[in-house]
Write a structure and sequence with these properties.
By secondary structure, the chain is mainly alpha-helical. Helix content is about 75%, strand content about 0%.
């Protein structure tokens, strides 16, 4: 939802706020990889219980993820592989952040929260997988209330305001619901397609 509401005009805003990104050509894939490495540092901070520090670092990593596509379009260097790499690395970051929370709460003997973070980890990966799999069959597949941007915002807010267990619970429940939504949407959309023998 965040992406659909605020994504329009993003390129112009990035150009105005961060003009230094466009002085010389930058490899957008390098920006994507840099974002992952920065986000790993944020995950490490969360694993150590440094939630507010980790939140700042995660937001910094998200900056690279935000601008890589803008830079690619500006330099006319967009590619299928770049889109594939960006999407794949997003899954890596999602997993790393939630795995860090599993590790932290497990070390604190808060096994209920650790398990909840594990559920969130599995559910978020399923949210992404259901969309990717559906898009291989259904054109312009959309749907689901809790996408990646919302999940990151919720976790960062939980880290900043000392409400991480609540944030994990919201992400776990919302991601499970979203995965279910996408499965039902895919079922309906695929039922509308002609079967091979009728195509």
């Amino acid at each position: 939802m965040i992406k659909s509401q605020y994504g329009e005009g993003l390129d112009d805003r990035i150009h105005r706020i961060f003009p230094f990104l466009f002085v010389r050509p930058i490899d957008p894939n390098l920006l994507s990889v840099t974002g992952v490495l920065v986000s790993f540092a944020g995950a490490w901070a969360w694993a150590e219980g440094q939630f507010r520090l980790g939140a700042f670092i995660v937001l910094l990593g998200g900056f690279f993820d935000l601008v890589d596509g803008v830079v690619a379009r500006h330099n006319h260097s967009s590619s299928l592989f770049g889109a594939f790499l960006d999407s794949t690395l997003d899954r890596v970051v999602d997993g790393a952040l939630l795995l860090a929370l599993v590790m932290f709460y497990a070390r604190q003997d808060a096994f209920g929260i650790a398990w909840l973070a594990g559920v969130a980890l599995v559910a978020t990966q399923l949210v992404s997988y259901t969309k990717a799999r559906a898009e291989s069959v259904v054109p312009d597949f959309k749907g689901g209330i809790l996408e990646r941007a919302e999940r990151v915002v919720i976790l960062v807010a939980g880290a900043v305001f000392g409400l991480m267990p609540l944030a994990i619970g919201v992400v776990a429940a919302g991601s499970t619901w979203t995965a279910g939504q996408r499965i039902l949407i895919a079922r309906r959309r695929m039922a509308e397609l002609p079967t091979p023998e009728n195509a």
